[in-house]
Write a structure and sequence with these properties.
The structure is a single chain. This protein is 79% helix and 0% strand. It has 291 residues and is mostly helical. The chain starts with a helix and ends with a helix.
């Protein structure tokens, strides 16, 4: 079960990044509306099926502290969508993915400090190797600047994303310990995100009907929604079994998928040294998943 959830995490992270790169929607507000719209719509049948299958959804067991955590992670998730969308517009995804992984070291330490659990020397060594390989990968991929990218803006929004993700990554652990299921966490989070986004669009006097027409024409935003649902549900179920910093480190295997996608599909040039680093990342993340 754990290995299946880890595979879902890897595929969802890679799929979300690739989808952001391919979406034809450039306006961050529209991206935000599209992602939250699809995440909520696609969460409804999952909630319905879970109820039919007899899963104990326990909506009535949600405490005030749970609501506070959900609101906090909702706000952070909304900002992280905007920050990541902005970063992906101004940076090659291989670079953005590589540099962003530095948050894993901080998340792993703080998660262990707060929630405890096993964190062996081998975990730490493999984590360091993964993060160092990711940073080197970003460095080699950044050898020649591309005119269409604004690197300063890209790294600015990427830095904001990293800070948010360190804080946001701790919250699922608290919610999992309170007994919240992955399906409930996913639905409530997506509901709150959509409601807040909808209110924001109304305040900004955006035409919601026009926005809906735009996002319905872009399949990539729907795929982002699917990936986020898979991520949310897998994350809560893994929170009681593993340090979520380790989980995110294993998910870095998605970087291998992303980089190969950029090379094979988008025809971006990749330094030969990057293939060695990708092999190191693949081996280290696989070992982290096994330990």
């Amino acid at each position: 079960m754990v290995y299946t959830l880890l595979i879902f995490m890897i595929l969802s992270n890679a799929g979300e990044t690739i989808s952001y790169k391919n979406t034809k929607v450039s306006d961050s507000s529209t991206v935000l509306f599209g992602v939250t719209f699809w995440s909520l719509i696609l969460s409804l049948p999952i909630l319905f099926v879970a109820g039919l299958c007899g899963d104990n959804l326990n909506f009535d067991a949600i405490s005030m502290s749970d609501v506070g955590y959900l609101l906090l992670v909702t706000v952070m998730s909304l900002f992280s969508i905007v920050f990541w969308a902005k970063a992906s517009q101004h940076l090659p995804m291989s670079i953005a993915e590589g540099v962003s992984e530095i948050y894993i070291a901080f998340l792993t330490f703080f998660y262990w400090l707060i929630f405890g659990g096993r964190l062996s020397v081998w975990h730490i060594i493999l984590l360091c190797l993964v993060i160092f390989a990711c940073l080197l990968l970003a460095y080699f991929q950044n050898g020649k600047k591309v005119a269409k990218y604004n690197y300063k803006i890209g790294f600015f929004f990427l830095s904001l994303w990293v800070i948010l993700y360190i804080i946001k990554g701790l919250i699922p652990g608290a919610l999992a310990k309170s007994g919240m299921s992955g399906v409930v966490y996913n639905f409530v989070l997506n509901l709150l995100m959509f409601l807040i986004t909808f209110v924001y669009m109304v305040i900004k006097k955006k035409n919601v009907f026009k926005l809906t027409k735009v996002i319905l024409k872009d399949k990539w935003l729907m795929i982002v929604g699917i990936c986020r649902i898979a991520n949310h549900i897998s994350l809560i179920n893994l929170a009681l079994k593993m340090n979520l910093g380790i989980v995110d480190a294993v998910s870095v295997f998605g970087l291998v998928i992303i980089t190969l996608y950029e090379r094979l599909i988008m025809k971006e040039k990749i330094n030969w040294k990057c293939y060695i680093l990708l092999a190191i990342i693949a081996v280290c993340t696989a070992l982290l998943g096994i330990l």
